[in-house]
Amino acid sequence: MTAHNQSKMWCLVSQPNSVILEVEVDPKARGQECLEKVCQYLGIGNEADYFGLKYHCSKGEELWLNLRNPIERQVGGVPPYRFALRVKFWVPPHLLLQDTTRHQFYLHSRLDLLEGRLKVPDSLVAAKLAAWMAQAESGDYDPQSCPQSVYAQYCQLGGVNTSRPQDFIQMIAAQHRELKGNKQSAAEYWLLKEVSYLEDFGEEVFQTKTSNGGRCSLGVGPHGLSVYHPDSTKQSIPYTAIQSAASQRRSFHLLYLDLDSNEATLDLKLETSQAASGLYRAITEKHAFYSCETVRSAVTAQFIRDLKGTIVSIFNEDTSLGKKYVFDIRRTCREVYDNARRALYQSASSTFPPIEESPEQQIHNTPEQCDNCVDEKCKSSQRKFARLLEAMSCRICMDRGIDTAFFPCAHVIACSECAARCDRCPLCRAEIDQAKRIYLPVELQQLPTC
Questions:
Q1: What is the assigned CATH class of domain 94-195?
Q2: 357 exposed, middle or buried (CB, 10 Å; 0-12, 13-18, 19+)?
């Protein structure tokens, strides 16, 4: 089928590793249809909310495709349209339930590290990150065939202007040697864990000008806004301090409370009106995703109209002509995790469908036969037992049982092997002063692991 066929439309979607997927959608399709087809093909349908599609507008800027609006009304030119699959909402790796999702996070993190969007000023941390990538891509360290070419590409890790010591490649090799035995999936997980500790993790960066004409960068991340000034100083504005935000043409205005609880303003000018709208959209969507229990209707229902739609709406207020939604966020971080967890549990349960039995057979079921029981009480007990097994499994490897407590936060979520690699608690991200072995009741220790 050709790209000019009026019944279908082609979209070319590139992954962070430059592999391109061809997606066929309806000419009037919304962005959500294209993203869902890509995620379904990659096997990440239950966690698609973490991702988005980016495209280059006519002025060369890279913008997020609004998934609730028709594709053809956002992207200029003629099909096939070109998009990039990227992580839109970053979360720590222990919140990712599918290996396929974690792999896409890894690919995007790797790309951001190599292209300098994630800053790694410390050379030891950079060597550790490079070693995890080498382990994921080349396997165990082999002194007979040391992958010097692989190490060499990591010399500018975290930015081309970042200076590294002359023995940086040897530092990578030394770190790589210590990772022997880690599988690719484990290496990808630990790289994501290290990346999640970086200062600018999950930030979407906008290049702006201040009211006095100076240039600065504004990062919109999981916890709030970060203003990076040319003199290398950083100003943090948490979401809880923001009073209001608005964009008009190329200008962006922010009203917030400073450290002394006094009202302060931040007036910025961006390159284009689309960039200013993108900044306003990023702040609203990320605040809703990371900080709210649910997405409010005030966010989901907000829309604008073009001139033609505005004129028609004067006579017919309910018309959808020219209607464009401002935001396309559907779920918060907690809702995405809960929905994905529920969907994966249901899909696992449906793999073993119940067998119809007589009431007498149900009464005399053995424990082995109980897996196919149709009694609701029995099913409820099975679900509770499954949750108990999951609760007793390490949250990091999901293989061994939990046997270690972190202090001072006192969270018990990991096995001793995974705990030895943690500098911060994977749950609350508090620094770990001590990790102590705990001894559960004998009855719990005898439970089978997942």
A1: mainly alpha
A2: middle
